[in-house]
Write a structure and sequence with these properties.
It is a single chain. This protein has one domain: Aldolase class I (TIM Barrel, Alpha-Beta Barrel), CATH 3.20.20.70. 42% of the residues lie in helices and 16% in strands. The chain is built from 12 helices and 10 strands.
């Protein structure tokens, strides 16, 4: 079967992201050739009903807790191998025990050693809504996310044109899933606020240097309107970091590598959830 025609937008992106995206487009071409859009859409529409990702975060904040999106990932380009042995179901259970609000599961294989199976195992192990953390560039992946059980997807503004982002957002919402729109700077935030999704993720990691700086959230989060929900991402390790993000206006956080490196994952989650 011939691979589908996929248009790659002309974007100015950092070298690391450019390599990842080039590989991702090739991966999508291959996977979509093996499983046609009509088939993956059928699988998506027959999947169990999504869990409400946004409502879960809103309820946590309303109750005075930190809305913790706890991430499950085995490796990363900046951190290398993070956890071994790596058991997604046990990690999901531990995060739930520690008071996490939602999960984020890496499904990218080449750079994060993730897989769809990791997401399926994590979601089956607990009642929390789950974000599919991957480089989403094509509608086929949105259907695939729903088919594997994801309740939310990540849209990285640095990796997408406005037209792509809007198309993927509209499709995701039509499947009753949530979208976390991720930004790294002022220009991306301005673009993200032109979309409909309530979740605005501010990533403290510089895509060019891969270094993290919480000042990024301190600069951008106060500009997120009251009808949106800011989520501070990357570089958050301690209760003081959580309080710093909350002071900036982000009572929801996404934390992965720090907790993945702890022996007692439940305790690590509990410490951050009850930092305020």
């Amino acid at each position: 079967m011939n691979a589908p025609h996929i248009i790659v937008p002309d974007l100015e992106v950092p070298d690391t992201l450019a390599r990842i995206l080039a590989d991702k487009y090739e991966e999508v071409r291959s996977r979509a050739a093996a499983t046609p859009l009509s088939e993956i859409e059928r699988q998506a529409r027959s999947a169990p009903k999504p869990r409400d990702f946004v409502r879960s975060l809103c309820e946590a904040v309303a109750e005075g807790r930190v809305g913790l999106i706890a991430e499950i990932k085995r490796a990363s380009p900046s951190g290398g191998l993070i956890r071994d042995p790596f058991e997604p179901a046990k990690l999901a259970e531990a995060y739930c025990e520690g008071g996490a609000t939602c999960l984020s599961v890496l499904t990218d294989t080449p750079y994060f050693q993730g897989s769809a199976e990791h997401l399926k195992l994590a979601r089956a192990a607990c009642p929390l809504p789950v974000l599919r953390k991957d480089f989403m560039v094509h509608p086929w992946q949105v259907y695939e996310a729903r088919a594997m059980g994801a309740d939310c997807i990540l849209l990285i503004m640095a990796a997408l044109s406005d037209e792509q982002a809007e198309e993927l957002e509209d499709l995701t919402h039509s499947l009753d899933m949530s979208v976390l729109v991720e930004v790294h700077d002022q220009r991306e935030l301005d673009r993200a606020l032109g979309m409909n999704s309530r979740l605005i993720g501010v990533n403290n990691r510089n895509l060019r240097t891969l270094q993290t700086d919480l000042a990024t959230s301190e600069q951008l989060v106060p500009q997120v309107p009251a009808d949106r929900i800011p989520v501070a991402e990357s570089g958050i390790r301690t209760p003081d970091d959580v309080r710093r993000m909350a002071a900036a206006g982000a009572r929801c956080i996404l934390v992965g590598e720090h907790m993945m490196r702890q022996q007692d994952v439940a305790a690590a989650a509990h410490q951050l959830v009850h930092a305020l």
